[in-house]
Amino acid sequence: MTKLILSVSLLGVLSLNAQESSPWTLQKCISYALENNTSIQQNTLQGEIAKNNLKQSKLSRIPTLSGNGNHNYNIGRTIDPFTNTFNNTTIQSNSFSISSSVLLYAGSQVNNTIKQSRSAIEANEAGTAVIRNQIALSVSSTFLQIIQAEENLKLAKSQNEITKNQLERAQILFKSGATNQSTVLNLQAQSANDKVNIINAENAIQIGYNTLMNLMQYPLDQPLIINADISFDQPEELTNSVREIYDLALQNLPEIKQAQALIEQNKYGEKVAGGRLQPSISAYGNVNTVYSQSGKSVSFGDTSLVPIGFTENSGETVLIPNVETNYADKAFSNQLSDNLGQQVGLSISVPLFNGYRNRTALENAKMNTKISELNLQTTKNQLRNDVTNAYTNLKIAQSRYEANVQNTNAQKLNFEFSQKRFNAGSMNSVDLLAAKNQWSQAQMQLLNSKYELLFRTLIIDFYKGKELTL
After folding, report:
1. Burial classification of residue 463, based on how many CB atoms lie within 10 Å of its CB (0-12 exposed, 13-18 middle, 19 or more buried)
2. What is the CA radius of gyration of the chain?
């Protein structure tokens, strides 16, 4: 079978070449489309964000740790924290601290946030699968449309060849006087109409390839050929009931799994919102130290007795001891070690009133859960409608195909008999062309019904969880 290669340049020029590229199967087209689709890539990145959120939620269980350092200038009249006296000089100081805290209880917000993040990941993965299925179905449908258009082109060319042969015979008969000019003109008109059908079929192929290349995000400057050499075996009679197919679809389709995961995600969101209404308990610890330019070390020297007065009765001299005190700048490292302080404790926070924010968040979370539950039911209802329609359409397609097979066979016999009568001179060209057009129309209807049956069978197989393949 001759293959059609379509290469679209920026000017939209079509080039036919059967040797530039190997044919693409349906599975290869689907794989390429899934790999290059931007919607899938965006959803995948959203999934990475959801995974990061899960990781962050898990890390909320471990203690926090932070360090702090300050360098200060006290200018003007200030109290020296080391001497507890007023000082008018500029004093430089440093303070350092390391603090840590761990959440002990917060209404199970951490655990529920982790579970909510996991549900978000499941919903994202199911959403990606939904997009993948939609793309696969679109590619499959377009793939079949191209094959059908190529079959229509062959049929149009075949019909044109028949008309050309009849026209050549009619022209010979007209020259010999065995027929009139009307017969020749009718066949010339039919030949022109056949050429229009050929052009329409070629345009349908071009449009199909354009659609397929857009779905695949395929480069416009590279040739593309699909493998149109597929065998058609009439599908076996459908034995599953519509209810059985619907039950299989409920188990297999990611739309249902996505809707269920969103319900779980919103239920955990309810619990997180409810946890904000409960007290939270945390343990904390702190290590701190300070250095000041005014920090001094004190040393004591000799002790002497200093008179301060006399007694009233005896006039004896009153003496008090006087200790010599020496001050020196205290080293930076010594100050840090001497001023080291530690602090540990528990803190509790009770939400009493914050403008009804937490209560509103809880009510909204409950509403989101109800919305997601309704969304699941809507998804099931839509799936039921789709499966029912697909089941009915397949039954109709089977009946239509069988009827068109019989009609095509009958129209072919009628045309062959009419052609013999025309050659014998017992039928005019108008009746012959009518028989030919009826046969051509029957062949076209048979082609359409064949590929409709293929596609309808593909849809049912998809709902049953089978791989899309031809």
Report:
1. buried
2. 45
Q: State how far the alpha carbon of 447 is from the alpha carbons of 139, 147, 157, 444, 458, in Å.
A: 20, 10, 15, 5, 17
Residues recorded for the chain: 470
d(CA 456, CA 393): 7
Tokens of 439: 């046969």
CB atoms within 10 A of CB 239: 6
* Each residue's pLDDT tens digit, 184-224: 888 888 889 889 989 999 999 999 999 999 999 999 888 89
Indicate if the alpha-carbon torsion angle 330, 332, 333, 339 is positive or negative. Answer: positive
Provide the token pair at 119: 């549900």
162 vs 169: CA distance, rounded Å: 11
Q: CB under 8 Å to 345, separation ≥6 — which residues?
A: 283, 284, 285
Count the alpha carbons within 13 Å of 410 in the hemisphere toward its beta carbon.
8
Q: What is the reported pTM?
A: 0.77
Structure tokens at 59: 């890390």
For residue 291, the one-letter residue type is Y
Is the separation of the CB atoms in 272 and 113 below 8 Å? Answer: yes
Bridge partners for 309 per DSSP:
318
The percent of residues in the chain predicted with pLDDT above 90, rounded, is: 45
What letter represents residue 327's amino acid? Y
Domain boundaries 5-295+330-463, corresponding CATH code: 1.20.1600.10
Question: Structural domain boundaries of the chain?
Answer: 5-295+330-463
CA distances from 3 to 77, 228, 238 (A): 96, 7, 33
d(CA 107, CA 275): 4
Burial grade of 14 (CB within 10 A; 0-12, 13-18, 19 or more):
middle
pLDDT mean over 251-278? 94
Alpha carbon distances (Å) from 107 to 111, 219, 331, 396: 9, 54, 49, 58
